[in-house]
């Protein structure tokens, strides 16, 4: 019997295969509302692997679907065949010609590409809202665009050249002149077929006219058949058909894009109109003023964010029907922007405005307006009813029909009872997004969705001559409407094209061309009601790139998707798969989540998957485990002494038996006992904290347990606690360090693992001590590890009533605050370093301390960098000792960016410093060492 796993193993090494149920269920959904379980997931690393995949697919008649960021919304990056995951490799980004062009590979994230272009003041044309998660393979294959790029700067129009592989394994590059003849010779059938289609189209004037018309506005329905009339050589035609081809024609291996200027100067304002028709009628006038962004927001959209702190207060009082346009002018200089807006006022002042919010060049005010605009989708999606799907739609109509289309859409929402539906969008291009929430768990609900879609198509296609998908691609959702929108002639061209390239229909079948008129109603992603965090998730994938376990086990989105899959399997009565998946989830979902919570910062609906995992860990602990943890907490002084003894012994073993001896020994034990912690070369010795007795101190210093246990430094003789003392002496800050700190801890060790009784005990004991050391809250408490500061600052709900009152009076100062506000102003910098780098720990972001860290760096070094790719190191307190693969995968990108080219390496958390030291083979130290080495007083 054919077994796909066995057959794939004959072709690919195991590191390129993902075959467990977890691997497959984690890739069963993208950001859209369709769901297909892949038979296998393959992670190719080069073109040779892709060639093997094409051949495997042909030999066994198993379809292939490429996936990069998986943020597609129309169901084009899922499959029940083999899912080809390109997001792990293929990340090359190479600026060329002084930033005028850029060569990219499919796995490069759009925002990372723009980061590489920043120093040239350039950016790529396509600007999807999802750019921080979407990758170039998807941006090109969906012909993505966004708020400012319009039609002119989308992927199609900014493509310089592309390298691709056909399903027969032949590779062509439009940057290589010889490839044009080679294409004609080696792929004669395709070459001739394209040439014939070209002739057929140019002989049909009505069709040529239709094509020209349809691409005057944004349009991603069907193939980009404008390529047939825009280009002459069949290789160029085919190259441009790949843009928007949604992975149904070939594999894009590399592309070169023309870039556009990134204009840093802006002025932004809000214009209000009585109703959508008046607002839409103003768009052509505003467009004539060379506005860079014109974002329309209807009254329900404004209403959805009117309570947010970033929304101007006036919005609340606006009458029903009011429609706003966020208007922005950009330029390469302040003068250019001023000239633009001066000219624009002549037009704006003549518009029938209800009111307006004056234009501002203040970056903070601008950010608030954009936050309001971008907050609309999450504000509705996050509060949708449990079990419903958030459907983000995307249509475009010619500008003269825009106002009428908004009005018709609003009527359609009323008819279908979509009371919370909102409309917003890139009005400059006639592009409207709208969000409706609809369950698709039962047939009656799917019927409602079907009827709504049909009516929508009628309005957009037939009444207003628009496109059913302006930016998001055809996928499975719009495939049944392609013929309706384009007509028979154009549809036949598309169908024949697909057949020419992929006669076996093995490349992403069902997407763009699908003969099943009901395909958009099949394989819909049901939304079981699971739990608070899971139910809010829209599976957009924005969280994935920041997650430390993204290249090790699962991402936050996948952790949530598997929770949903478990519920679906249970409902289907598939106990076998359910139990296997549940068992696998312990390691991939729970044990290897760093619970850092950084996912919440990128999540449009603010889900902290770390909190979900902590709760699951808590629920999974037996009474016995909780009791044991509580015993450990109660005897933490003893535990601390034992750990110190073990660390001293370990360090002695290394001294006697060689510096990597402990690493080897623990690695050996770990092969037998999986949960055994691994020794790392960055582990340092315990230190003895020297107490100071000051009657009226400026600050009380509470050295964290990790400082006490591993506070010695690899290179510097002075432990961090002594460095703090020394700096305080230099700065004239009087410091109190209590006796008997042994056993006192913020409790993070227990809370991150979900041992709540143990955590409560620990944190309450600590507050007791701090209350006394701080003279009942009169003296602020200095902490030397940022995550411990954050942990204590957020502990209130776990405190007894008495301790909560104390907590309110206590002041905790983190090391970064202390260094920036207490020490830096009182110290003299005498030896500035040349170039240094920071690793901001996760809580630095959560506590808004990044700017202060930068301030310290700017004072102490000529150049202080925060790596663009820095993120959670995956250490999660002690988790990295148990799962070294987690920290290794989490720190890989940051380590390659840092690449040893600095004079100093600093952070503010001992275990994170250890993880980064291990990854970069450099010595990361507390930020206090930076002050010690650069100041003399
Ligand atoms: C909240 C949200 C907002 C969005 N906003 C926008 C927006 O403003 N504008 C916009 O245009 N889109 C938007 N999108 C849609 C989506 O994010 C974009 O289309 C994005 O560019 C897709 O990129 P991806 O890497 O996620 O592609 P994926 O979803 O992984 O793949 C997209 C398609 O590309 C194919 N593909 C990928 N790599 C290759 C390759 N190497 N060769 C051949 N085919 C390949 C896949 O098979 C698939 O068909 C949004 C999505 C979400 C969830």
List the helices and strands and how they pair.
Blueprint: H1 4-11, E1 17-18, H2 21-25, E2 40-42, H3 47-60, E3 64-67, E4 82-85, E5 93-96, E6 101-104, H4 110-117, E7 122-124, H5 136-141, H6 155-158, E8 159-165, E9 171-173, H7 178-186, H8 188-202, H9 205-214, H10 226-230, H11 234-241, E10 251-261, E11 265-273, H12 276-287, E12 293-297, H13 299-304, E13 323-331, H14 334-348, E14 355-360, H15 363-374, H16 376-381, E15 389-396, H17 402-415, E16 422-426, E17 431-438, H18 443-463, H19 482-486, H20 488-501, H21 532-536, H22 556-572, H23 575-591, H24 599-602, H25 609-620, H26 623-634, H27 636-657, H28 661-672, E18 699-702, H29 705-710, H30 720-731, E19 735-737, H31 748-751, H32 756-773, E20 781-783, H33 786-793, H34 801-809, E21 812-813, H35 815-823, E22 833-838, H36 842-846, H37 850-860, E23 861-865, H38 879-882, H39 884-898, E24 904-907, H40 910-920, E25 924-926, H41 927-934
Helix pairs in contact: 7-8, 8-11, 8-20, 12-17, 17-18, 22-23, 26-32, 30-41, 35-37, 39-40
The structure holds flavin-adenine dinucleotide.
Flavin-adenine dinucleotide is lined by residues 30-31, 65-73, 76-77, 86, 106, 128-130, 134-135, 137-139, 141-142, 144-146, 246-247, 251-252, 471-473, 508, 540.
Q: What's a quick, concise take on this entry?
A:
This protein has 937 residues and is of the alpha/beta class. The protein is built from 41 helices and 25 strands. A 7-stranded antiparallel β-sheet has the order 14-11-13-12-16-17-15, sandwiched between helices. Strands 5, 6, 7, 8, 9 and 10 form a 6-stranded antiparallel β-sheet that branches.
């Amino acid at each position: 019997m054919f077994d796909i796993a066995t057959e794939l193993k004959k072709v690919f090494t195991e590191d390129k295969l993902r075959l467990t149920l977890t691997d497959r269920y984690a890739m069963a959904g993208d950001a859209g509302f369709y769901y297909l379980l892949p038979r296998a997931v393959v992670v190719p690393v080069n073109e040779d692997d892709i060639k093997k995949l094409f051949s495997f697919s042909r030999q066994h008649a198993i379809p292939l679907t490429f996936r990069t960021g998986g943020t597609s919304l129309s169901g084009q990056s899922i499959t029940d065949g083999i899912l080809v995951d390109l997001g792990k490799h293929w990340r090359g980004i190479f600026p060329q010609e002084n930033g005028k062009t850029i060569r990219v590979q499919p796995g490069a994230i759009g925002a990372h590409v723009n980061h590489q272009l920043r120093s040239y003041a350039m950016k790529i044309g396509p600007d999807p809202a999802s750019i921080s998660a979407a990758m170039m393979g998807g941006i090109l294959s969906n012909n993505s665009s966004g708020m400012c790029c319009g039609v002119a700067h989308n992927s199609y129009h900014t493509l310089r050249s592309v390298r691709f592989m056909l399903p027969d394994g032949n590779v062509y590059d439009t940057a290589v002149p010889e490839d044009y003849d080679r294409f004609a010779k080696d792929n004669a059938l395709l070459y001739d077929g394209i040439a014939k289609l070209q002739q057929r189209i140019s002989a049909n004037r009505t069709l040529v006219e239709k094509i020209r018309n349809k691409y005057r506005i944004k349009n991603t329905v069907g193939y980009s058949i404008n390529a047939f009339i825009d280009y002459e050589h069949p290789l160029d035609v085919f190259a441009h058909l790949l843009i928007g081809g949604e992975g149904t024609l070939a594999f894009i291996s590399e592309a070169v894009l023309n870039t556009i200027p990134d204009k840093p100067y802006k002025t932004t304002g809000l214009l209000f109109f009585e109703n959508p028709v008046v607002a839409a009628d103003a768009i052509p006038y505003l467009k004539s003023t060379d506005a860079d962004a014109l974002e329309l927001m209807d009254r329900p959209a404004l209403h959805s964010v009117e309570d947010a702190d970033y929304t101007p207060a006036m919005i609340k009082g606006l009458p029903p029907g009011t429609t706003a346009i966020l208007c922005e002018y950009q330029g390469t200089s302040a003068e250019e922007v001023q000239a633009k807006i001066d000219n624009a006022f002549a037009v704006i002042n003549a518009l029938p405005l209800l009111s307006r919010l004056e234009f501002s060049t203040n970056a903070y005010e601008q950010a608030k307006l954009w936050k309001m605009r971008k907050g609309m989708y999450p504000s509705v999606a996050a509060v949708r009813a449990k079990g419903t799907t958030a459907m983000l739609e995307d249509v475009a109509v010619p500008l003269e029909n825009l106002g009428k289309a908004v009005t018709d859409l609003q009527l359609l929402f009323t008819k279908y009872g979509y009371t919370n539906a909102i409309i917003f969008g890139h009005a400059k291009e006639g592009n409207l997004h709208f969000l409706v929430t609809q369950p698709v768990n039962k047939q009656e609900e799917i019927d409602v969705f079907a009827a709504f879609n049909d009516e929508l198509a009628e309005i957009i296609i037939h009444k207003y001559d628009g496109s059913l998908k302006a930016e998001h691609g055809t996928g499975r959702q719009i495939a049944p409407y392609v013929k309706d929108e384009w007509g028979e002639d154009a549809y036949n061209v598309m169908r024949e094209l697909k057949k020419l390239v992929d006669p076996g229909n093995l490349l992403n079948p069902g997407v763009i061309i699908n003969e099943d008129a009901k395909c958009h109603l099949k394989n819909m992603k049901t939304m079981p009601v699971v739990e608070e965090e899971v139910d809010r998730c829209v599976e957009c994938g924005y969280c994935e790139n920041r997650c430390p376990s993204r290249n090790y086990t699962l991402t936050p989105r996948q952790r949530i998707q598997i929770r949903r899959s478990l519920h679906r399997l249970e409902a289907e009565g598939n106990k076998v798969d359910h139990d296997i998946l549940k068992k696998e989830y312990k390691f991939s979902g729970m044990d290897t989540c760093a619970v850092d919570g950084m996912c919440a910062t990128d999540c449009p609906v603010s889900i902290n998957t770390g909190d979900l995992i902590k709760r699951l860990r808590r629920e999974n602990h037996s009474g016995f485990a909780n009791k044991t943890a509580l015993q450990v907490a109660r005897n933490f002084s003893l535990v601390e002494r034992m750990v110190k003894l073990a660390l001293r012994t370990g360090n002695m073993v290394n001294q006697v038996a060689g510096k990597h001896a402990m690493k080897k020994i623990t690695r050996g034990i770990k092969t037998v006992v999986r949960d055994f912690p691994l020794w790392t070369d960055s582990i340092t010795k315990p230190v003895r904290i020297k107490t100071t007795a000051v009657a009226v101190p400026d600050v009380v210093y509470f050295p964290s347990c990790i400082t006490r246990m591993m506070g010695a430094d690899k290179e510097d003789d002075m432990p961090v606690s002594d460095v703090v003392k020394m700096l305080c002496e230099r700065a004239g800050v009087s410091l109190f360090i209590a006796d008997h700190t042994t056993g006192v801890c913020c409790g993070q060790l227990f809370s991150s693992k979900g041992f709540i009784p143990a955590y409560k005990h620990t944190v309450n004991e600590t507050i007791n001590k701090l209350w006394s050391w701080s003279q009942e809250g009169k003296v602020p408490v200095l902490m030397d590890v940022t995550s411990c500061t954050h942990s204590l600052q957020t502990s209130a709900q776990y405190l007894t009533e008495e301790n909560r009152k104390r907590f309110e009076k206590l002041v905790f100062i983190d090391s970064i605050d202390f260094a920036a506000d207490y020490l830096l102003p009182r110290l003299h910098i005498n030896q500035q370093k040349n170039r240094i780098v920071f690793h901001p720990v996760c809580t630095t972001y959560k506590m808004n301390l990044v700017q202060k860290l930068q301030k310290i760096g700017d004072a102490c070094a000529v150049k202080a960098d925060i790596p663009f790719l820095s993120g959670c190191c995956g250490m999660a307190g002690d988790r990295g000792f148990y799962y070294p693969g987690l920290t290794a995968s989490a720190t890989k990108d940051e380590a390659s960016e840092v690449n040893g080219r600095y004079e100093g390496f600093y952070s503010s958390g001992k275990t994170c410093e250890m993880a980064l030291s291990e990854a970069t083979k450099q010595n990361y130290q507390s930020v206090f060492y930076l002050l010690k080495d650069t100041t003399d007083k």
